[in-house]
Amino acid sequence: MSNYQVNNTTVNALLSWIDQGIVAIPEIQRPFVWKPSKVRDLLDSLYNDYPVGYIITWQNPDARLKDGSISHGKRILIDGQQRITALMAAISGKEIVTKEYSKRRIIISFNPIDEIFEVQNPAIMKDKRWIPDISDVFNNGFDTFGFINSFCSKNPDISHNKLNEVLQKLIGIRYSSIGVIELSYTLDIETVTEIFIRINSAGVNLSQADFAMSKISVNDQYNGPLIRKTIDYFCHLIKSPIVYENIINNDSDYVQSADFNKIKWVKDYNTNIYEPSYSDLLRVAFTFKFLRGKLANLVSLLSGRDFDTREYREEIIEESFEKLHDGVLKFVNETNFKRFIMILKSAGVINQKIVRSQNALNFAYALFLLLREKNVNDSLINQIVRKWLVASILTERYSGSPESMFDFDIKRFAMHENPFEYVRNVEAGELSEAFWENIMITNLNTSVSSSPYFNLFVMSQIYDKDNAFLSKSITVQQLIEERGDVHHVFPKKYLQSNGYNSRGQYNQIANYAYTEQVVNLAIRAKSPKEYMGLVKQQINGEKLCIGEINNLDELKENLKMNCIPESIFEMESADYSHFLEERRRFIVEKIRHYYNRL
């Protein structure tokens, strides 16, 4: 069987197929984003008989029903949604939905005398040469004869015959040709993705989550549109609560659903720690509920695939939609979500920038939901999720092939009667003495400021409620919450003036510390020996000039919590390499101590 077929159809036939549900627009996480001028240009191209590109559909496989009969799959529109929506807006007069979920019309006007299109505006509304809204012309009840008489009486420059000719050409847009590439249901998700990327001229990449959302959206029988909206609305509300009013005003059916009542809490919730996208939500719900890691498998299951017989069966579709819906509702559950955020905070995660790996967060939430489903003790859940999150960041467990690792790990957590055993097994294998004493120290030898290892150090400082470098009462957490910056223990300008000119030298993460701005300004470009000498003077009773610490024990404690060796008092540029080596060891010791206490 061929991977695809290429056919031509007309605008009229295509819009009819969509009305009848033969071709389904999946609303793949993409509200209408075209500018009105682009809609105008599309109509102009069709009017002038210019090609407007292909649309791509993907056939849902035929599924065998319980009685043995066959249910024929719909064709899903996977590329061309913006063009089809533009045609529906301009020709059929339908409202479009913006990314804020407000509804509005895009009205295209037409000047039959000059044969030009324009987006409707107040000037056009006052100009008798324009048809203000072309959707009126495409209406089945449009009175062509009456319109020609009326228009020509106001515009004697155009004859009845000429106007009739132009109108017929305009109405003929309905019969303009559009190419359709129909992808076979036998294609796997990876092949469909590759085909899409190769022939999509706009350069928009669809992910496997997009295709999964397509499958969800078009299945009316098993609440697909409801599931899609719950996913979509939750992810938008958590980032922009302002869309709540638009949902209320523009989607009354959804507002009356039980799902809406389960997500509306998020409009009043403010977190910048974990703001999942629809892809994240899908991945978490699928991983914990199906004990699988590959989203391509979700696409297959939603199509009814039996992995053993390679057939497609209706009962698998029904079961998969039920499980996914339950997984989505568990994800958006207020108690679950807020408890997970509290676990993250208890591990020192107070900002989304601290954990750069979204995959690590996603798996941690999937693990949390799985353990709750297994009725594991709440205190044990907190400990397991905290330790696993930090261990997965330490080992960069989900940075290479996250789906394979998701699949591997979730199955083993589900398998173990005591899930903590699996954590211990991974610790023994991957967090050995060699890891802490060699690998971790080597990992800290980097100038990449977004390094997960420096962020783990910061998490340990937040966990311990440490003060910032040379601060008496301002904590690292407070600086981060107030958007404080990291600064150099060996000042950058000082190092540059002493021959350390490359970023890889002066921007070593072992040279970074969270420092109050006033402290950093007081240090300026001094050597550590010089500015620590000033700190010593204030300890001996002289006036404060760098920070507020005036007690030797407090100073030593501050150096210890910031992993600064006490030899800093005598250090100059020649000691920089030794300082980095010492501090890396101290940072590793602190992170290890932090991990063991989680």
TrEMBL record:
Limits of the GmrSD restriction endonucleases N-terminal domain: 14-215
Protein's UniProt name: GmrSD restriction endonucleases N-terminal domain-containing protein
Source organism of this protein record: Pradoshia eiseniae
